[in-house]
């Protein structure tokens, strides 16, 4: 049975005060003091006995209340003494303030206690310490002078108490403060000022999440804690100068330690990068490792801010560009790319050196990868050389070699002859430029499932032709791609599409000769840096093309006129023949054809719409006359 219940034996012995004395001695709860009276009534005791018990109960409760008050005051004095003791041995201001807030909350029995301090720079108060708080927004509140209950206390330097915060109109409500108080669920709030002299430096609060009336003794107790908090802050301010001197000494010691850490860190970075390279790691592995070391984001890129990249290459150091750091990855005079560090605008010299060292390791990895790629390129070049020289005619072996290089000799291909057109200062520079062209062409061939080889002072490529593409389009794209890669004009001549290369390896050599003739024609016509096939040169293409595609030339030149006559039954071709035979004179043409001059004019106007407005220019007229003659020669075959 609980100690709060009185045993029957206690009620039957002694005076009416006896059971209540026993309850007082045990420190029983208030409810237990009802038990002796209720038990006497239940047992039917005389009215005098019950009245005596009720009187004894009232006296006992009065004594209990007095004892409780004394115990509470003793606890309060003990807490104040402990806080004063903490203040006397002040080491950590935050710890003292937390102890004050914790003890205030415990002694006042509130759900929450908190302390705010004045911010002279912003002219408001901010939360410094909270105890019992659960809402993040409440813990980050700032109260302007006069705003909220705390702002009113700070402004007036007087304690204020409210039993229902949201219904109290004595202070200014703001949306931000009310939202924070609502999140915390506070209803009753008591606030007392922290003062140093005549200045309010903060506010100490005690609050409940239910309606409550704070007694005068409780307000006084919180004020005593506030005075101790103010004293703690003042003591801390007095210690600032001493601590400042100690801080300077600590800083000097820290510098020494930092120098030691720098050496250890540099050694660690060197070991990690060396281990990564020995493990066979790649460029992106280096970037990931450096990102972890520098606590940022690091990426390797072949393009970066041009000015910063050039500055890094020239200086040999990482340079800052906006919020990033850029370290050039270079080998000799060749720029291979850059390591870009993001998310660390404030980089110390040690970290900067780490980024630079990573860039150097990256350049070594790239050179190693390039060596491997060049080995593969040589293999591709050897296969193309064999196709060009027709040394290996076994289709099975050719297909097998091509398959290992991810090329398909049964697909339709175009042979392209490429050459640099920029002037070279000397033989060394010219040789270096040719190597760059070969490297770029080899890379392009590898990515397009083709082959490439160096030949005749330039480069020859064998690239597959996709559906819907033409030799001309492929030549122009290749000229643009290679020119961008080597930063010089590259002219490309293309052959007509070729098929069955494994079965007819001689076709590759013939196609290469056609591509070279187109290349020479482009250069003679002043079209350096362009790409073209034989079909782009009009009647000149007949001379350039290896298969002399006469029908194709006729169709490209006057095919629209031929088709128009076939569909409409007109005589535009005969009119054109007569027009050119009569020295391009409409009057003489009408006599030759025995038609009206207007008829001739109408037919020539129709020809102009079909062939274009420049059809009578000297170059076009020459091509049209040649096409007309070739058409006449082939006409018997058509019929």
What does this structure look like?
This protein has 639 residues and is α+β, with helices and mostly antiparallel strands. It has helices at 8-12, 18-26, 35-42, 47-88, 93-108, 136-139, 148-156, 175-184, 216-278, 283-294, 306-315, 349-389, 395-404, 427-447, 471-486, 506-524, 540-544, 550-568, 572-581, 586-593, 597-611, 618-638; strands at 112-119, 124-131, 142-144, 160-162, 188-196, 199-208, 297-301, 319-321, 324-331, 334-342, 413-420, 451-455, 458-464, 490-494, 531-533. The chain is elongated. It starts with 7 loop residues before the first helix and ends with a helix.
The overall average pLDDT, rounded, is 78
Number of strands: 15
Q: Structural class of the helices, strands and pairings?
A: alpha+beta
The major sheet is characterized as:
6 strands, antiparallel
Radius of gyration: 50 Å
Q: What is the straight-line distance between the termini?
A: 128 Å
What fraction of the residues are assigned to beta strands by DSSP?
5-15%
- Indicate the overall shape: elongated
Question: Which consecutive residue ranges, at least 5 long each, have pLDDT under 50?
Answer: 1-14, 542-546
Query: What is the helix tally?
Result: 22
Main sheet: strand order = 3-2-1-6-5-4
Helix fraction by DSSP (H/I, runs of at least 4):
55-70%
